[in-house]
Structures are given as structure tokens and as C-alpha cells.
Amino acid sequence: MNPIIVLQHNGWSYIKHGYQLSYTTASELIINGQAGVAVECPGNRGYSMFEGELLTLAIPQAPTSNLIGYRIRDEYRDTTTFPRTLEADAFELDDDQDEYVPRDGAAYKREFYDEVRETVEREPLLIDFIIVDRDCAPVERPGDITIDFPADLREHPETWHKHPVSISGKALFLRATAMLRAEVKAHPNEFAMNDYANIGTFTLMRVVTHKPMQYSYSIGKRTKRLTKTQSTVELMKISAPDSSYRDGAIVPGELRGANWADLQPQIERFLDTIRAFIAPGAVHICPHCDGDGFLVEARA
């Protein structure tokens, strides 16, 4: 079985919960002979962590039980002359009859007796581990991040964030639209959207309340006149790089970084430009046209 992966960083050891540790909590790990010294790694549920050097790693084993004999069942105690107790080896499996029979050929049967067992505590199970990096804390990898795999990373992908990484423009589009979509759904009286995921475009609009405005439309030969006090104004449009509808839209391109620490702030800066469109006060009524126009503050 493959050894457990261990990372170290700034005096802390990080233990990856592989298959052997999949049902073991951090507090149950026996670190250097002690239980209760490890805690769950914040932000990365697949790891436990503790301060210090990992010398030995073990997990507790559930107690087992040994058969030490047989005791006659209560319903047969006063109605038979069979022995009240038997040794652990009193029965053997008869392959022909596919049942347990007395070794000495006696008349009593296995179903007349209950097993007598004793609980036996087991020693902790030692777990093999390998320290793959002594200057690397674990980082959970986002699913839309691409890694430039060197040969050693194929063997130990836990250190992915120390290597060159990138995110595609399509992935940035999906991140941005997911954020905008959630904002529109959370504030339907403030924002509206045209969401065309199938063609890779998203238009964000602001709902603006203003003085009553007359408008009309025709139904056959009739003209219907209405008054509205709300309008929508387009704030921005964002399109995926592979969309055919990119005119006038923000089109995110691929971002690359020497490592995750280099790429992550680039992603946040891009998302900050998108967040600016949903910031309070991004749109307000034009004071010069008394509700017939709107001002959209310019964004850098």
C-alpha cells in the first residue's frame, strides 16, 4: 500500500488523509506515540496538521474478541445432561455436513451452546509515510486551474501550487458570470441580466427607479399608453473568448503565474474589475435630465 504523503512548512507537519486514513479524524491520529495532538487543517479538509517533526504515525485499531469456550444455553440447562461449559476447540467443521460437530463424537450439538468470548485490545497500527517536501504547506487546488506538470509533480501533485499555473479566459468568464448571476438573484430589485450561457455572453443591467415616464406601443390599430417608474440600464457585457458575440464586451484572456501565489492575485484583480459594476452607487439618475437619462460611473 502506498505511503501517506506528508508536507512540512515553518515547523508544522501536514498529513494527507489518503485511503488508509479516510475514516480517521485528526484527533485520533497517534503522532510520535501521542493521540490528540493533530488538528484538521483549516481550508483543506484532506489534511491534518500538528506542530513539530513527524517521526512515527499510527492509528488506533478496534478491539477484537477471542473465543475462549462455550456455555450451554439457558433453555437446555435443566433439560439435558450435556456439559455446562466446553473448551474453545470443542467443535470442528464437518465439510460433508457443512456444520460444526463435536470433536469427541458426543451427542450435543453446536446450537445448544453460546460462544464465550473475551475482548482483546490491539496495538495501534503503524502507518508508512513519506515526506515529499519540507517547505510546502498544502493548498486546495481550484478545479479550473491548469498546472504545467514537471516530471516530479506527476508523482507528488500535492505540491502543485509551487509550480507554474494558469487559468483560461473561459474559466475566468465562468467565475465572473457565476458571481454576477448570484448578485442579480440576491438583489432582483437592483439588478437584471441577460444570461446566454449557450452562446457565452452575459449582460448586467441596473434597475433604476425614476420619475414617472410615459411610453406607448401599438396593438393592431390601437395605441396603448403606460407610465413606468423603473428602467434598466446596461452596466456591462462580458463574453467568453470563444463566443461569436464579443463586440463591446469584456473578453477575459488567459492568466499565467510562476506559481499559485503569483496567479491568485491576478485572478482577484480581474474579479475586482467585475465587482466594481455591482458596487453601490455604480448607477444613479442624471440630475440634468430629470429622470430621462442615467449616469454610469466610469471604471478604470
TrEMBL record:
Q: Which domain of life is it from?
A: Bacteria
What is the name attached to this protein's record? Uncharacterized protein
- What is the species listed in this Swiss-Prot or TrEMBL entry? Burkholderia multivorans CGD2
